[in-house]
Specification:
Dihydrodipicolinate Reductase, domain 2; NAD binding; 7-stranded parallel β-sheet; amino-acid biosynthesis; EC 1.2.1.38; Rossmann fold
């Protein structure tokens, strides 16, 4: 059994990890930490876990976490990097669900996150945990940077087109929408249902923290810097991301449907829908699937990709479990055979 620790078990991604790992056939939940809730039974805070998780929150001490085989950090940005070096030195493998190790350039990271990175020497070692791109590297990684939610939906949608050299990589557009849980479990006026309900708005249009992460991944695929306009929006729903992606074709595209189907034919958590489909966020709610469709409107030189995920699962906790499975030589689908919740 894999002994698992979770740092930051009280947030939305933390409880999603608990929900998935509690039923994982190869996992023993060893430590769930929270400074604010230390001593409280996990099931007292999240009654959906009654009968499945019977341990209490503890302080996030390195001594306790060092007894784990792998530790997930479901913490705000800037927390994991303070403790990861000690855990790696103790032989613990780490999966960070925040952004501390996603961007390879320490100065670029500091520019977007507003603080100096405390262990920049680990950025080169950290493996970006998008299994559809870095599966083999993830298997041998000590430290995995779990991708952000928007970056997962956007990169998976654009990658087949970029790798095939079919679109102008200087003029990419990602128009993406997320449910309110993407902001995390905190008291913030803008994400209260009374504020966000019956409304729809863009935010971060001048520059969002996920922009450099997306550009980094697409640049690696293109082999040259890409130009991307990324505008996120807040939807009046709890969970889910819908990314509408636009690219300008620079050469005859051929059969785009066949291109996408071939690109993801062997991917257990990417579903390319039949031609003419429009994927819905509710079809992936609670599951680890990225569901997408591709269209060339009126046969013109614009290609549109529609990509949906659950921001808390494939966009966070589910992808983290997928990475853990790869790191420990398990079936990649272990603990993740979850069907989306309808209605």
């Amino acid at each position: 059994m894999i002994k698992v620790g979770i740092v930051g078990g009280t947030g939305y991604t933390g409880v999603e990890l608990l929900r998935l790992l509690a039923l994982h056939p190869e996992v023993e939940l060893t430590a769930i930490t929270s400074r604010s809730e230390a001593g409280l039974a996990v099931s007292a805070l999240y009654p959906n876990l009654r009968g499945h998780v019977d341990i209490a929150f503890t302080e996030p001490s390195t001594q306790v976490l060092s007894a784990c085989d792998v530790v997930f950090f479901a913490t705000p940005n800037g927390i994991a990097m303070q403790q990861v070096p000690e855990l790696l030195a103790a032989g613990v493998r780490v999966i960070d669900l925040a952004a501390d190790f996603r961007i390879q350039d320490a100065q670029e990271w500091s520019r977007w996150y507003g603080v100096t990175h405390s262990c920049p020497e680990l950025l080169a070692e950290a493996v970006y945990g998008l299994p559809e791109v870095n599966r083999e590297a993830i298997k041998n990684a000590r430290l995995v940077a779990n991708p952000g939610c928007y970056p997962t939906a956007v990169q998976l949608g654009f990658l087949p087109l970029i790798k095939a050299g079919l679109i102008d990589a200087d003029t990419l557009i990602a128009d993406a929408k997320s449910g309110a849980s993407g902001a995390g479990r905190k008291a913030e006026i803008g994400t209260l249902m009374a504020e966000a309900g019956e409304s729809f708005k863009a935010y971060g249009s001048g520059g969002h923290r996920h922009l450099p992460e997306i550009k980094q991944g697409l640049t690696d695929a293109a082999g040259a810097p890409v130009g991307l306009t990324f505008v996120p929006h807040l939807l009046p729903m709890i969970r889910g991301i819908h990314a509408t992606l636009y690219g300008r074709l620079i050469k005859p595209a051929g059969d785009l449907q066949a291109l996408f189907e071939a690109a993801y034919a062997n991917e257990p958590f990417v579903d390319v829908m039949p031609a003419g489909s429009h994927p819905e966020t509710r079809s992936v709610r609670g599951g680890n699937m990225c569901r997408m469709a591709v269209v060339q409107p009126q046969g013109g030189d614009t290609v549109v990709v529609l990509s949906v995920i659950d921001n808390l699962v494939k966009g966070a906790a589910g992808q983290a479990v997928q990475n853990m499975n790869l790191m420990f030589g398990l079936d990649e689908r272990a603990g993740l055979s979850i069907i989306g919740l309808l209605p």
